[in-house]
Amino acid sequence: MTAPTSTPPRAAVPVDYAPLRAHRRNRALIQVGCVLISLFMAVPIYLIAVASFSTREGLNQFPQPLWPKNFGTETMATFLQSTGIVGGLINSLYVGVGTLAFSSLIGAPAGYAIARFAFRGKDPYQLFLLFTRALPIVVLSVPLAGIFLQVGIYDSPLAVILLHTALALPTTILITSSVFLAVPVDAEEAARIFGCTPVGAFVRVVLPLALPGMAAASIFTFVMSWNEVLGATILTFSQRTLPAQVLSSLSDSPLAFRFAGGLVLVIPALIFIALMRKYLLNMWGTTIR
After folding, report:
1. Residues near 99 by Cβ (< 8 Å), separated by ≥ 6?
2. CA gap 289, 163 in Å, rounded
3. At the N or C end, where does the chain have fewer CB atoms within 10 A?
4. What domain range is 39 assigned to?
5. Within a 10 A sphere around the Cβ of 17, how many other Cβ atoms?
6. What is the pTM of this model?
7. What are the percentages of helix, strand and coil residues in the chain, rounded to 5?
């Protein structure tokens, strides 16, 4: 009888951690990059906010502290009580919402047609849309001012809405066409088989699926309309939007007035983007949370 032979212990296989370390390093670099980009955008807004809520004496100090030591609402109150500011703010909201409605009503059907139908000249048409954005705003504004004088809508928010709609339509059409292209045609055809009309299939099936992309287009439209200055200055005189009103009085304004105006110009656009954030997350996925 022979004694059982013992098997030698198997040598441990070395684990290569290099890919895992590279993945962690790349992820850390991406996060650092995101933080730096966020700081690059957030720090100027914070400094403007600090200056807007500082007293006149605190605003003249050098260097400025990162946290306001002389907090006060005198600067902001003076800005809001200035002539034309509240009216300009109302006109800006009216023009932004009107531009958003007009560009959506015109741009969404055009984007749907580009996504669903093949027609002659489709590609040149999409390229031609971009030519509108290539023209300087003054080239569009000056002829439009003459036309608006003839039809009697010069110096009104409607004139600025029409100009901003013309500027926003190329972006709205191209974004919505790419969004509608991603919606499955089978879902729309299934809705029509079950009795929906073409309009009903669009409203009940296509539109809910395209809503996040249309929200992204609306953000671009509202922010563009809110920040546009030159066209609003040319087309209005007494019914100016807030950026045009601030620009017209900028050269004669004190430094505190400029900081307060900058903060008031930024806040509504940030609020609108925050309200539309959930639609952007639905479109881009949850990886950017």
Report:
1. 161, 164, 165, 168, 221, 222, 225
2. 36
3. N
4. 21-71
5. 9
6. 0.75
7. 75, 0, 25
- Local confidence pLDDT in tens for the 289 residues of the chain: 455 556 666 666 777 778 888 888 999 999 999 999 989 988 888 888 888 887 777 777 777 677 767 777 777 887 788 778 888 889 998 999 999 999 989 988 888 888 888 888 888 887 787 777 777 777 778 888 888 889 888 888 899 999 899 888 888 888 888 888 888 888 888 888 888 888 888 888 888 888 877 887 888 888 888 888 888 888 888 888 888 888 777 777 777 777 888 888 888 778 877 777 766 666 555 444 4
- Cβ neighbors of 207 (< 8 A, separation 6 or more) are none
> Tokens 């260097």 map to which residue?
63
Q: What is d(CA 107, CA 104) in angstroms, rounded to the nearest whole number?
A: 5
Residue 178 and residue 116 in contact, taking contact as beta carbons nearer than 8 Å: no
Domain shared by 159 and 51, yes or no: no
Closest alpha carbon to 195 in 205, 182, 185: 205
> Residue 10: left (phi > 0), alpha (psi -120 to 50), or beta?
beta
Task: Classify residue 11: in a domain, yes or no.
Answer: no
d(CA 151, CA 140): 17
Statement to judge: residues 108 and 217 lie in one domain:
yes
- Residues pairing with 54 in the sheet: 71
Spatial separation of the C-alpha atoms in residues 109 and 164, rounded to whole Å: 18
Residues in the chain: 289
16 in any annotated domain: no
66, 50 contact by CB (below 8 A): yes
62 and 88 together in one domain: no
Burial class (CB in 10 A: 0-12, 13-18, 19+), 107: buried
- Cα–Cα distance between 227 and 218 in angstroms, integer? 14
